[in-house]
């Protein structure tokens, strides 16, 4: 198992320079996630293909989380992130790219910690936790 709690694979150099892996590692620790988490940044089309193949969902999304916390055969949790969605969302939601990329990554970590966002109450709890961790570790 890797010593790094957060790993990153991205063909986009701006993601590598923008993403604060140390801050996300602190969130990872606070949430008591046991396995390292690897974030794969991809295009909309690549994420759409993962969504179709893995979840049988035929729509664009900003993030897909694969929780392997309880799978002894897999050493890392995996998160697929659409860089295209993050860029569009930051404009549409009037957020900086820095804020949006960290929010999406924190969102994925919250899923790994057991948070869900299927109901309005759950969405509110998740958004509140995202805001808390953004303010605590990822503010600029």
What does this structure look like?
The chain is α/β, with parallel strands linked by helices and 140 residues long. The protein has helices spanning 13-18, 21-30, 44-55, 83-92, 97-112, 120-137, and strands spanning 6-9, 37-42, 63-66, 77-82. The longest helix is centred in the last third of the chain and has 18 residues, at 120-137. The chain has 6 helices and 4 strands; from the N terminus they run E-H-H-E-H-E-E-H-H-H. Helix 4 packs across helix 5 and helix 5 packs across helix 6. The protein has one domain (6-137): 3-Layer(aba) Sandwich (Collagenase (Catalytic Domain)), CATH 3.40.390.
Summarize it.
51% of the residues lie in helices and 14% in strands.
Q: How is the secondary structure organized here?
A:
Elements: E1 6-9, H1 13-18, H2 21-30, E2 37-42, H3 44-55, E3 63-66, E4 77-82, H4 83-92, H5 97-112, H6 120-137
Major beta sheet, specifics?
Answer: 4 strands, mixed
Beta-strand portion reads: 5-15%
The H-level CATH homologous superfamily, spelled out, is: Metalloproteases ("zincins"), catalytic domain
Shape: globular
State the end-to-end distance. Answer: 31 Å
Give the radius of gyration. 14 Å
Just name the CATH architecture: 3-Layer(aba) Sandwich
Give the tally of β-strands: 4
Q: Give helix % range.
A: 40-55%
- Biggest β-sheet: strands ordered side by side in the sheet: 1-2-4-3
Mean pLDDT: 94
| Assigned CATH class | Alpha Beta
Keywords for this entry:
6 helices; 4-stranded mixed sheet; Collagenase (Catalytic Domain); 140 residues; alpha/beta
């Amino acid at each position: 198992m890797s010593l790094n709690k957060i790993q990153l694979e991205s063909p986009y150099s701006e993601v590598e320079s923008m993403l604060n892996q140390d801050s996300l590692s602190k969130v990872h620790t606070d949430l008591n996630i046991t396995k390292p988490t690897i974030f794969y940044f991809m295009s909309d089309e690549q994420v759409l293909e993962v969504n179709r193949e893995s979840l049988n969902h035929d729509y664009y999304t900003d993030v897909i989380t694969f929780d392997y916390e309880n799978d002894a055969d897999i050493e890392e949790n995996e998160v697929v992130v659409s860089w295209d969605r993050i860029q569009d969302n930051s404009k549409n939601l009037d957020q900086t790219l820095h804020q949006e990329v960290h929010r999406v990554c924190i969102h994925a970590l919250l899923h790994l910690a057991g948070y869900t966002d299927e109901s309005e109450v759950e969405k509110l709890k998740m958004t509140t936790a995202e805001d808390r961790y953004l303010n605590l570790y990822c503010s600029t």
